[in-house]
Amino acid sequence: MLERARAAARFLTGAWDAESGAMPFEIDPAQFTYFFDCGIVVRGLLAVWRATGDAECLDCARRVGDSMMRDFRAPDGEFHPILALPGKYPIARDPLRWSRSPGCYQLKAGMAWWDLWEATGDACYRELYEGMREVSLRTERDFLPGHTERRKVVDRLHAYLYFLEGLLPMPCAEAIGGGIARVAALVRELAPEFERSDVYAQLLRIRVFADAVGVAPLDRTAAQWEAERLAEFAAEDGGFYFGRSAGTWEPYINPVSAAFALQALALWSGDAQADRHLLI
Predict the structure, then answer these.
(1) Which of 122, 115, 120 is nearest to 170 (CA)?
(2) The domain containing residue 153 runs over which residues?
(3) For the chain, what is the mean pLDDT?
(4) Smaller CB count within 10 Å for the chain: N or C?
(5) Where is the domain boundary, 82, 115, 143?
(6) Does the pTM of the predicted model rise above 0.90?
């Protein structure tokens, strides 16, 4: 397992484009770089660095974290979600597509700066995280429901749960507890129309983490219902179906959703510990 992690890290360090100073979203051709994905790359590289001591992982993580700070910041202080390469020009935003707009969900990626502060001791990274946290706490109430289409509201639940996860380095009891309640209510309201396995997984995970850090006691009845609902998405090949519309399975399996589901069920069963550094 550790060798697979090393191989993934080598791919990421090799994907860094030194000429443009960017971590491309895709390669051949490298057309875009995403703020959110850069944050996930940093956290993944740091996880391998903590396990192996590989200095190349730490060096690359710092380069990517610096590019998030340097290249994505907009004049209004927000962070552009997507830049076009090689010029690093922000692409047009779409307020009805959360992934094409800045928002509180970006705090999940902002955790990369907190992790870099832990790894390097450089206070600028902690200040970046704290600044994004402050803005996210001010704006998160506007994120939900955020769309007139009910199916799109379910999609935004997935992103909003990223915000709650992003609070874990400096937990806010009011925001996390209230956020869990808001998501849980919307999940149950919208379930007859559309469900996503990753939403169930993220909701279950944040319940476990919130209890572990002492900001929201675990509602075992609600968590049990969510765990049972999530388990229904398991496919025979070991994956998890992405979604279910009006009781009918969506015809594909999403690897990210499957990873979320496996981690959530392991946390719920006690087979995994609530270690923030290992949160996918």
Answers:
(1) 115
(2) 146-280
(3) 96
(4) N
(5) 143
(6) yes
